[in-house]
């Protein structure tokens, strides 16, 4: 398709190494990359089409520094529909809020994880229906590590928690399996916190975006001179976690030879750093996350049979959110409570109609995606509760699977004010439009048709009446 051939990512960054990393990751999904060093050059490049149309822009906060939000706004003015990905080292949720309000489509943190960047690029450039509100954000909201505070009453989810709580008391290796975003790492952390090793070292190894050579060094460490560039001795995650717990995220990403080696270490406790002449003994409990049951992954050739056997039957399977629809409502309220504690945000309720809409979606990104959608909605909401109009693209995806709207009976619009006089026509008109948007679940074409006005007229009225984020 022409769109695929022309996909171009413009990177605004002064760090050549980072530009190379972004380019290599983006190339995996068919993107080509160009880079500029400042915003002025970026604006100039956006105005050109001779070397391809820019389909997305990645802005490093180091380029704009304290003027990041102003810079985002400037780029947004120059290219109103361009997806803008904001890259920063800051974990502050307040910065995420400010960047999004300034016009950023998504918010990424350094170091860049390959999966995260690719998801952001793909989800922000959907051409048929605008789905940018469904893109996951990188905001860091601290999550509970206690089993009792993990939200959900679905039988399959409670069964997984019970199995995890029982396994937490042991010392053997365990794999938590499930789709991306189901909370695998959170559950593994809860297991560690409830284990006899809760006060011992805890190391997490994220395998996404790491090369095979770097993974081996990160896991086992290396001696000085073990390979070109190894100027000093470095301990690995296994050694750093000695006496405690090592969590390997996405263990199937380890290359086959390293999987075999890890299986041997789990079985014997022996580990040998790269370039070392002899091994040493370790006492480490290995927890891991994977996309599916290890035996199934072994049958598919994704995981080495020896590694699958090392974990045995110690697998905790987390169900996807679409299989625990009844948990969407309590999860939504839980996430909104966490979001409301973040700087620059406040606690928000959610209407029954909005919950019905959220429950009707399949959530391919699971809990992570639900939290991201709620975070984005909360950033722009100026009411006390989220309604269906805070999720303007969601109904287009859910379609007729959404629950029927709650019928509105007489008295839905107040005609008289507290003083007994008629309210102004402008105020009544605003209430009617809000009521129509809620009743028709944010389907703006249907709202305009039912009100007997054109869609452009509706949007003009939204602007004139100060009804924000309705489209």
From TrEMBL:
Localisation: Cytoplasm
A GO-annotated cellular component: cytoplasm
Domain Response regulatory: 8-125
CDD domains per the UniProt record, alphabetical: AAA, REC
Residues where 4-aspartylphosphate is found: 60
GO biological process: phosphorelay signal transduction system; regulation of DNA-templated transcription
UniProt KW keywords: Activator, ATP-binding, Cytoplasm, DNA-binding, Nitrogen fixation, Nucleotide-binding, Phosphoprotein, Repressor, Transcription, Transcription regulation, Two-component regulatory system
Coiled-coil segments: none
Superkingdom, taxonomy of origin: Bacteria
Pfam entry (one): Sigma54_activat
Function: Member of the two-component regulatory system NtrB/NtrC, which controls expression of the nitrogen-regulated (ntr) genes in response to nitrogen limitation. Phosphorylated NtrC binds directly to DNA and stimulates the formation of open promoter-sigma54-RNA polymerase complexes.
Annotated protein name in UniProt: DNA-binding transcriptional regulator NtrC
Organism classification: Bacteria, Pseudomonadati, Pseudomonadota, Alphaproteobacteria, Sphingomonadales
Gene this chain is encoded by: tacA
């Amino acid at each position: 398709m022409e769109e695929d051939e022309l996909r171009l990512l413009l990177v605004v960054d002064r760090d050549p190494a980072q530009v190379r990393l972004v380019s290599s990751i983006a190339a995996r999904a068919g993107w080509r990359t160009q880079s500029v060093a400042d915003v002025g050059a970026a604006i100039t490049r956006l105005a050109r089409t001779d070397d391809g149309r820019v389909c997305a822009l990645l802005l490093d906060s180091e380029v704009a520094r304290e003027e990041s939000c102003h810079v985002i706004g400037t780029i947004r003015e120059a290219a109103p529909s361009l997806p803008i990905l904001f890259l920063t080292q800051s974990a502050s949720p307040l910065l995420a809020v400010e960047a999004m309000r300034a016009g950023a489509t998504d918010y990424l943190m350094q170091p860049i994880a390959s999966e995260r960047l690719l998801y952001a690029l793909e989800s922000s450039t959907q051409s048929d229906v605008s789905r940018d509100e469904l893109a996951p954000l990188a905001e860091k909201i601290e999550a509970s590590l206690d089993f009792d505070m993990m939200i959900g009453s679905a039988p399959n989810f409670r069964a997984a928690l019970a199995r995890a709580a029982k396994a937490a008391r042991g010392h053997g290796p365990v794999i938590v399996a499930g789709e991306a975003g189901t909370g695998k790492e959170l559950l593994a952390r809860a297991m560690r916190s409830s284990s006899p090793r809760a006060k011992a070292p805890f190391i997490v190894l994220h395998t996404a975006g790491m090369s095979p050579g770097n993974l081996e060094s990160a896991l086992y460490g290396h001696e000085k001179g073990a390979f070109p560039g190894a100027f000093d001795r470095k301990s690995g995650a296994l050694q750093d976690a000695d006496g405690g717990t090592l969590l390997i995220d996405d263990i199937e990403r380890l290359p086959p030879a390293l999987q075999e080696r890890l299986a041997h270490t789990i079985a014997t406790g022996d580990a040998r750093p790269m370039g070392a002449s002899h091994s040493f003994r370790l006492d480490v409990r290995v927890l891991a996350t994977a996309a599916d049951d290890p035996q199934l992954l072994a049958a598919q050739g994704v995981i080495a049979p020896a590694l699958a056997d090392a974990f045995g039957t110690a697998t905790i399977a987390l169900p996807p959110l679409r299989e625990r629809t009844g948990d969407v409502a309590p999860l939504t309220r839980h996430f909104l409570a966490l979001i409301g504690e973040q700087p620059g945000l406040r606690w928000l309720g959610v209407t029954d109609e909005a919950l019905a809409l959220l429950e009707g979606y399949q959530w391919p990104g699971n809990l992570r995606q639900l939290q991201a959608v709620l975070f984005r909605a909360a950033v722009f909401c100026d009411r006390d509760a989220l309604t269906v109009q805070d999720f303007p693209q969601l109904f287009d995806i859910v379609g007729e699977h959404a629950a029927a709207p709650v019928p509105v009976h007489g008295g839905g619009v107040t005609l008289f004010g507290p003083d007994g006089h008629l309210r102004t026509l402008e105020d009544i008109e605003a209430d009617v439009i809000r009521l129509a948007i809620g009743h028709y679940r944010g389907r703006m074409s249907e709202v305009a048709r039912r009100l007997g006005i054109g869609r452009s007229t509706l949007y003009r009225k939204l602007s004139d009446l100060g009804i924000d984020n309705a489209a």
